[in-house]
Specification:
61% helix, Heme Oxygenase, Chain A
């Protein structure tokens, strides 16, 4: 019987289904679109996650794979959203997960990028919820906006590159571990932020 090969993106989706679903449920249970104040807390969580990965979008190793990588970066958009609302950003104490100029493990980085890009694919629902607060792709919800090519095409172009590199089993495991670490990081920010009213880096 011929073994059916699945793409790296599909394997990541299957492996992270439980933690991803738990994260989505935790975010929605906090009702981040119930008020602009609650939404600002959601933005601070986004700020800290995108700060963690901001350096990836300037990494030459990744830029060689993804020609449009720099355009996918959303850290500045999140900060602009906070400024639109007149909200205080999270205190950026401690070093981010990835630091510009430091050695980069490509499989691990791909796992983190998978989580970041997947969140943009799923943001179509979120930006509709944000619109009820008077927010849009031009004001307060910039980081949730779709790319000009559309969310599905944007995601498809990302996964096409994600699936392309040949990797050893050990490298594949590092991709999975990177995605798991990214989901865990966001869940930690959600739990700390919505519980204590701050999404500090602690």
């Amino acid at each position: 019987m011929t073994q059916v090969e699945t793409s790296r993106a599909k394997r990541l989706k299957a492996a992270s289904h439980g933690v991803h679903e738990g994260l989505d449920n935790a975010i929605m249970a906090a009702r981040p679109f119930s008020s602009r104040e609650a939404y600002a807390e959601f933005l601070r969580i986004q700020q800290m996650f995108h700060r963690d990965i901001a350096a990836l979008y300037d990494a030459p190793e990744l830029a060689a794979l993804f020609p449009d990588l720099a355009e996918r970066r959303r850290y500045e958009q999140v900060k602009a959203d906070l400024a639109d609302l007149g909200a205080v950003p999270a205190a950026e104490t401690g070093a981010p997960r990835f630091v510009a100029g430091q050695a980069l493990d490509l499989p691990t980085a791909l796992g983190w990028l998978y989580v970041a890009e997947g969140s943009n694919l799923g943001a179509a629902f979120l930006i509709k919820a944000a619109s009820a607060l008077g927010l849009s792709a031009e004001f307060g919800a910039r980081h949730l906006s779709a790319s000009p090519e559309g969310r599905a095409n944007h995601w498809r172009s990302f996964t096409t590159v994600l699936d392309a590199p040949d990797m050893t089993d050990e490298e594949e495991a590092r991709v999975m571990k990177g995605a798991s670490a990214a989901f865990t990081r966001v869940r930690g920010l959600v739990d700390a932020g919505f519980r204590h009213g701050t999404a500090d880096a602690a």
